[in-house]
Design brief:
Layout lengths: L4 H31 L4 H27 L5 H54 L9
Helix pairs in contact: 1-2, 1-3
Length: 134
Amino acid sequence: MLMSTVNQAYIFLATVYGGLLIGFLYDVNRMLRKIFRYQKVITGILDLLFWLTTCFSSFAVLYYTNDGQLRFYTFIGFALGIMLYLLAWSPLVMGLFMLLYKLFRRMLRFLIRIPIWLFSNAKKKIPLHFKKIN
């Protein structure tokens, strides 16, 4: 099957976009691994999910743009997209993920402290009069 140059350029750009998506999925996986540190079972599950989503997204890009055909330039496109993401966007995305994680953790700590504070103050304010039964 003869392919036009425009079609090949479209497929190449689609694989570059697919590589950018894979890079983003890698950062999501990295962030989740930082959150669930030292838990080997969760790390294994996260790695499995990462590779499954990577395989599925790569297959989807190739299937919808190139009828599932593998060409050398598709591999170059995926690699270029991943490298572009890791060099240009990854530091920004990971910084944003860390900021959101820290804000979420602080908010969760604050929300947990509210009922503790309420109960400790209620305990101090309400006198308990119990007679000791012998």
